[in-house]
Amino acid sequence: MNSANDKALQGVETARLPAISPAVDVLEDSEGITLLADMPGVRREQLQIDVEGDTLTLAGEISLQTPEAMEASHVEWQVPRYRRVFTLSHELDRDAISARLEQGVLHLRIPKLAQAQPRRIVIEPV
């Protein structure tokens, strides 16, 4: 099997594994939507954001480092990954999505398409 197939199958297997659904705040203004997803323990390199058609998928692996020569005596993280799926409105511009991860919170900005944004009509003088 080639590497493209391996990656595709790996994604399917990962999607089937148990995951924590991160808490997400959805904020809307006249220009678009901002998602704030709580994903503590996820580093930028372990975060994956995919858009396929109308589906937005957020996924991240939690990496908690145990200091050398130490062993965890109690662990509350049972599932070391986050996954959340959203259906996007047709008013949103999928090609202009921007993201940043700051102190365990993913900030995702999805602007509205130009034709979906409110605009003021100028009245021309006669």
Distance between the termini: 71 Å
The coarse silhouette is elongated
Number of helices, counting only DSSP H or I runs of 4 residues or more = 1
Fraction in beta strands: 35-45%
Which structural class do the helices and strands define?
mainly beta
Order of H and E elements: HEEEEEEE
Sheet of most strands: 4 strands, antiparallel
Record field, number of beta strands: 7
Low-confidence stretches: 1-13
Helix content: 10-25%
Q: How much is the radius of gyration in Å?
A: 19 Å
Mean pLDDT: 84
Trace the largest sheet across and list its strands.
1-2-7-6
What are its keywords?
126 residues; mainly beta; 4-stranded antiparallel beta sheet; 3-stranded antiparallel beta sheet; 7 strands; disordered N terminus
List the helices and strands and how they pair.
Blueprint: H1 3-16, E1 24-29, E2 32-38, E3 42-52, E4 55-62, E5 81-87, E6 98-102, E7 105-111
Antiparallel strand pairs: 1-2, 2-7, 3-4, 4-5, 6-7
What does this molecule look like?
The protein has one helix at 3-16; strands at residues 24-29, 32-38, 42-52, 55-62, 81-87, 98-102, 105-111. The protein is mostly beta strands and 126 residues long. It has a 4-stranded antiparallel beta sheet, with no helix packed on it. The chain is elongated. The chain starts with a helix and ends in a 15-residue tail after the last strand. Mean pLDDT is 84; it is low at 1-13.
